[in-house]
Design a protein that fits this description.
The chain is of the alpha+beta class and 178 residues long. 61% of the residues lie in helices and 13% in strands. Helix 5 (88-95) runs antiparallel to helix 7 (119-134).
Length: 178
């Protein structure tokens, strides 16, 4: 009986937190992305990257950066937009586990704060907020929901970040029998 009450209490707190996150406008959301490709670093707007993700249309600066970095825009777009389905409640629980922390640390090697501090917390917030919107997560959603004004993205390692999201999805299925 006590166990059911504690479980219900946790679920209610989690649902309440998710509702607050979903219904409130974030105080901070990423406005700029610093794309890093080897020695190249270029700051672009999140809107610019989002437009590219949605339409495939490259801005002039993004076209130049991807060409200099010898990156295929179609491949980059695929990793930015390909969604991973997750249950927001289970995602939150998993991200607060030891396995979740390992995955957060790996993804934060690709998507991080400019100061390289509180990466795990910022990424966790961006992932949960992204999942709350539609029950799935994509890298472009994570970037858009990142809780700092600027987010750094290692373009050479986007594929690895996407693989970590897929691994997280698999871990959720294994842990919770989804």
């Amino acid at each position: 009986m006590c166990f059911n009450f504690l479980g219900l209490r946790r679920v209610l707190i989690l649902v309440g937190s998710i509702c607050l996150l979903f219904l409130s406008t974030p105080a901070f959301a990423a406005e700029r992305v610093v794309l890093k490709y080897g020695i190249f670093r270029e700051s672009i707007s999140v809107e610019e990257l989002s437009t590219f993700s949605q339409t495939g249309e490259l801005s002039r600066s993004l076209k130049v950066n991807l060409a200099l970095a010898r990156q295929d825009p179609k491949t980059i777009r695929q990793y930015l937009t390909k969604p991973v389905k997750v249950n927001p409640v289970f995602l939150d629980r998993a991200l607060n586990s030891q396995i979740g922390n390992i995955i957060l640390d790996r993804i934060s090697q690709v998507i991080s704060t400019p100061s390289q501090r509180a990466n795990r917390q910022a990424l966790r917030a961006a992932l949960v907020l992204s999942a709350n919107q539609d029950g799935q997560v994509s890298l472009i959603e994570v970037i858009k929901n990142y809780p700092t004004n600027e987010v750094e993205v290692d373009g050479d390692r986007l594929q690895g970040a996407y693989r970590q999201l897929r691994r997280l999805q698999t871990n959720l299925q294994d842990l919770f029998g989804l």
